[in-house]
Amino acid sequence: MHFGGFGGLTVKILYGLLGLALTVVTHTGVTIWLARRRDKGRPAPHWERVWAGVVWGQPLALAAAVFPALFLNEKAILPIYLVIVVAALAFASRMSSAEGAARVLKWATGVLVCAAVVAHAAVWGAQVSDPMAWGVSAVAMMFVLVPVVIRRSWTTLEARSGA
After folding, report:
1. Contact present, 77 and 65 (Cβ < 8 Å)
2. SS3 71
3. DSSP secondary structure string, 2-48?
4. Distance from CA of residue 162 to its chain's centroid?
5. Is a pLDDT exceeding 90 seen at residue 80?
6. What is the Cα–Cα distance from 105 to 137, expressed in whole angstroms?
């Protein structure tokens, strides 16, 4: 990642939020379209599985691309990224449900993100001069760990209320 020095922290936060908003709009738009097709009696289960592969294959491939960036030649980054994207699409399209494909790809992404943060800290931790690097690593781990904690808490609450 590259962090520009213009505009200060406010501009960095704004760029991050705008990028996140674009991702959310794109994801929800296609997801709503597929749900409406299903609700109208014209489901497209194959395309739902493919969409799960697209949505969760990208972060999986990005997390996987960290390892050639850290340990191999930079020329290996793109081929590894593309292989992971194609593998995620192939995997999702062969699953029995989009939900199952998304669950497995989310889990794999979470594991790779955590491993990437640890590997990055092992390689560069002693040489980090920009505190923003630690912030990026903390946010990456937060995006993986917070949903797990929330899901477990929610499951525990449901179990207690149902008992």
Report:
1. yes
2. helix
3. ----SSHHHHHHHHHHHHHHHHHHHHHHHHHHHHHHHHTT---HHHH
4. 32
5. yes
6. 21
Q: CB of 84 within 8 A of CB of 61?
A: yes
**Tens of pLDDT, residues 1-39:** 555 566 777 887 888 889 889 888 988 898 899 999 999
Which secondary structure element, helix H or strand E, spans residue 75, and what is its range? none
Strand positions, DSSP E, the chain: none
CA distance 51 to 29: 11
Closest CA to 68 of 120, 122, 3, 141: 120
The CB density around residue 41, as the number of other CB atoms within 10 Å, is 6
User: pLDDT tens across 119-135, in order?
Assistant: 888 887 777 777 777 77
Sorted by where each begins, the domain ranges of the chain are 1-43, 45-162
